[in-house]
Amino acid sequence: MRLWLLRHGQAEAHAPSDAERALTPRGREEVAQVAVQLQGRPLTAILASPYVRAQQTAALVRDALGYAGPLLTVPWLTPDSDPRQVLAQLDRHDAGELLLVSHQPLVGALAGLLLHGHRQQPLPMQTASLAELDGELAAAGCMDLLALVHPRHDR
Q1: For residue 154, is pLDDT > 70?
Q2: Which domain of life is it from (predicted)?
Q3: Global pTM?
């Protein structure tokens, strides 16, 4: 199974609620930079948090790739979701290549759990960071990190 973990792009600092924070222009640019890493990948699904910035990130990736497969909104990819619950939910998805679009601290903790079998070593994920993990199954300590790509912030 190939699992791609993408943290949303930079978002507005203020909104009526955290869930309503939208991407900034810089955040859209960050997502465009890392989306090229997914070009030509045989994604089986894109799963995204219901928060606005994650939905916008997933839509930007879908459009950049010309992806016609399912874009699923799931409630278990929010910032404070439990990584163990995410693993239980992933069991319900076909093996293949899945892209999860979510937030910190979840993406870092989830990657740490998949790589090390515990959450004490989260993977550092900046805005629009993309981690590529591979393994026989999405289970604690059963995946390897193939790549971690961060957007450029030189402008």
Answers
A1: no
A2: Bacteria
A3: 0.96
